[in-house]
Task: inverse folding
């Protein structure tokens, strides 16, 4: 009976029978881990653990937000000690409408993307700018067009 | 030929202040996108950065911040487009571009603020004796 169960479990998991012929407890724990790994892999479509992936994702986002903050500080002539939050609106920092357009143009040059007019109008906070930049960079936004 | 073709295409007047404002932002975007090619044409890499040029253009536009008449804004936009076209079509020389948009901020060009309320006498008085 135990041997039959081991055979069934190993067949289902695709493991060689020799590997699954340990003690029952060991076999059970091992099978659970394998099932869990398989489920996680199948669900995420990536052969990587949760922690590194999340960290990489966070780092990319934080990097973009940091760059955006740096450019905003430079364009609005804020001091280096000025603390910016991702939810800060450009108007709160003293920018008028032309300043906002200038910030968008500076971001275009920095990241090598082209922001369409509709997208440019919807950018009001640093987080909005970072999200749009990530989307355009991931989507392979074209280089700025040369002047006619 | 390019000049003749460009002179014919005059956009219609703006119907409202909001439309004129929209056109100002379009012009600013167009000018900013032309900066890399301008720097290449006139070989400005050793005297200015694209960021500084962009700030200069924004400053020039901001000089007319108080204008609210759409007709006046259209006229100013037309002049701006003509200036941008002259620059991108080699109608200016390097020292013209440098003198107006690079060094001009440091005293070479008299940066007289546009004071709407002063009389002509006071304006000339402030300008002093320079021709």
Result:
């Amino acid at each position: 009976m135990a041997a039959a169960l081991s055979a069934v479990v190993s067949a289902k998991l695709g493991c060689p029978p020799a590997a699954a012929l340990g003690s029952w407890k060991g076999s059970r724990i091992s099978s659970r881990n394998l099932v869990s790994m398989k489920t996680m892999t199948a669900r995420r479509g990536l052969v990587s653990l949760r922690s590194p992936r999340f960290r990489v994702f966070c780092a990319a986002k934080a990097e973009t937000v940091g760059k955006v903050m740096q450019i905003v500080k430079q364009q609005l002539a804020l001091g280096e000690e000025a603390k910016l939050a991702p939810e800060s609106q450009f108007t709160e920092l003293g920018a008028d409408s032309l300043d906002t357009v200038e910030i968008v143009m500076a971001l275009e040059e920095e990241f090598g993307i082209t922001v369409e007019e509709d997208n440019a109008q919807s950018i009001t906070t640093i987080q909005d700018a970072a999200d749009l930049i990530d989307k355009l960079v991931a989507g392979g936004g074209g280089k700025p067009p040369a002047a006619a | 030929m390019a000049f003749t073709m460009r002179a014919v295409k005059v956009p219609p007047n703006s119907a409202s202040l909001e439309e004129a404002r929209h056109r100002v932002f379009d012009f600013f975007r167009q000018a900013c996108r032309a900066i890399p090619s301008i720097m290449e044409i006139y070989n400005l890499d050793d005297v200015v950065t694209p960021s500084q040029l962009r700030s200069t253009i924004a400053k020039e536009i901001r000089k007319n911040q108080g204008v609210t008449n759409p007709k006046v804004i259209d006229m100013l936009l037309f002049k701006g487009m003509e200036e941008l076209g002259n620059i991108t079509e080699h109608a200016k020389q390097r020292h013209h571009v440098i003198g107006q948009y690079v060094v001009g901020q440091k005293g070479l060009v008299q940066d007289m603020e546009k004071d709407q309320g002063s009389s002509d006498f006071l304006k000339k008085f402030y300008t002093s004796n320079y021709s």
User: Anything to note?
Assistant: Residues 50-76 of chain A form the longest helix (27 residues). Chain A is about 65% helix and 0% strand. The radius of gyration of chain A is 26 Å.
